[in-house]
Design brief:
Radius of gyration: 24 Å
Order of helices and strands: HHEEEEEEEEEH
Number of domains: 1
Largest sheet: 7 strands, antiparallel
């Protein structure tokens, strides 16, 4: 019993000492961060990322995105290079458990944003679609946003 009391006392004394922290050892509280970090996106890298992703995932029979050769649902960033109305666009979105989730952003090849929509479980959130023309003016439709005139 005496040994047990001494052991607890030793743990208490050594465990209660104040530990000084330096900024390198401080841990910030965990906050959910979007997978698409708008400030850090390098559009020059999107074509290569899209090509690599195309080799990695595929759309499953039920419309979910899965890792090729498995039945594992894909979660991560989605990159696609597409041509809409004759204009090359880059689409960057989040996929969670096989479904689009969060912002899906369409960029022109010059880096300007052409459109954005918020998605939940693969479905656009009503009223969340926004589009901009090549001059940066807000427009009503994707067609107006990508009209080259």
């Amino acid at each position: 019993m005496k040994k047990l009391v001494l052991l607890h006392a030793a743990i208490l004394v050594t465990g209660c000492g104040e530990k000084k922290s330096t900024p390198a050892t401080l841990i910030a509280p965990s906050q959910p961060e979007p997978l698409v970090d708008k400030a850090m996106l390098d559009l020059d890298a999107v074509p290569a990322l899209a090509a690599a992703l195309e080799e990695t995932i595929e759309e499953g029979p039920e419309g979910d995105f899965i890792v090729k050769g498995t039945d594992t649902l894909y979660s991560g960033v989605f990159y696609k290079v597409d041509s809409i109305s004759g204009e090359q666009v880059y689409i960057v979105a989040n996929i969670k458990d096989g479904q689009f989730e969060g912002p899906s952003i369409m960029y022109r090849s010059n880096g300007s944003k052409a459109g954005e929509v918020e998605l939940q479980n693969g479905t656009p959130v009503e009223g969340s679609e926004q589009y901009w023309n090549s001059k940066g003016q807000k427009v009503d439709t994707q067609e107006e946003a990508l009209d080259s005139q």
